[in-house]
Design a protein that fits this description.
Length: 142
């Protein structure tokens, strides 16, 4: 269930909340105007599909990393590059999707990290890894 950039862009464009999308696969950001003629949408999404053939050749998982920001330009105006070039501490959500023998999405909105696994029989994700944390550092013994 790999979502190429085009499908991801189409999906986000159909949401009435995203005003722009940026990806390293595009030369410039994509301004979303189809459902937002008055430029009322409030979020920009930055995406990097990890889909290189070099990953597939060595059996490394493929997926997509993403970052979501509130636009900084005034609502009612077109999205600009300034909306995408924000510091990381301004993110409202970030995460990744891994596609493989199981499809999983892991994300945070700043209050913990949760992982969801796709149930392909139902076509829905279920909370499989709640409140994910890094393990505490263990001091190595010489």
């Amino acid at each position: 269930m790999f979502l190429p950039m085009k499908s991801l862009s189409e999906t986000l464009t159909n949401r009435e909340i995203v005003c722009g999308i940026a990806s390293e696969e595009e030369d410039s950001f994509i301004s979303i105007n189809s459902n937002d003629e008055n430029h009322q949408n409030k979020y920009v999404v930055l995406i990097d599909p990890l889909d290189g053939s070099s990953n597939i050749d060595v059996n490394v998982s493929v997926g997509t990393i993403f970052s979501i920001y509130r636009r900084v330009t005034p609502v009612g105006t077109p999205v600009t590059l300034e909306d995408f070039l924000q510091p990381g501490n301004q993110q409202v959500a970030a995460g990744y999707v891994v596609y493989g023998t199981s499809t999983m999405i892991v994300y945070t909105t700043g209050d913990g990290v949760n992982g969801f696994t796709l149930n392909p029989a139902l076509g829905t994700f279920y909370l499989s890894h709640p409140n994910m944390k890094f393990p505490k550092l263990v001091k190595s013994i010489p």
